[in-house]
């Protein structure tokens, strides 16, 4: 049975992943490796995901977590890491004041 996981800013996603792996769960970690513009999470932010789609942490404050969780499922299944890029790639979009302009690059890899 899958246990509900709630985002909690006081919890360390890496410690949560360690606990999940001790329970025998397959896991992946997503790490923010580059930002530009208005990315809501800094480089080094983490999101951990198990094979059932449970997750803890954040790489974007909710903007791209669904897509990252989906890709993490594939990373867990095939073991091949992925570099994901989301957002506006053209600097002119940022200059005209798009509130969610910017870009974020996230590296997703299997743990264990």
TrEMBL record:
Pfam families: XdhC_CoxI
Top-rank lineage group of the source organism: Bacteria
Signal peptide: none
Domain XdhC- CoxI residue range list: 20-87
Protein name in the entry: XdhC family protein
């Amino acid at each position: 049975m899958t246990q509900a996981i709630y985002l909690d800013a006081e919890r360390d996603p890496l410690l949560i992943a360690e606990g999940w792996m001790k329970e025998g769960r397959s896991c992946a970690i997503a790490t923010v490796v580059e930002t530009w513009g208005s990315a809501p999470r800094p480089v080094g932010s983490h999101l951990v995901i198990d094979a059932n789609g449970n997750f803890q942490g954040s790489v974007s404050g909710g903007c791209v977590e669904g897509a990252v969780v989906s890709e993490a499922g594939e990373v867990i299944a095939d073991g091949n890491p992925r570099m994901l890029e989301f957002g506006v790639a053209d600097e002119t979009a940022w200059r005209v004041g798009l509130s969610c302009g910017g870009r974020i690059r996230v590296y997703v890899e299997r743990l264990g």
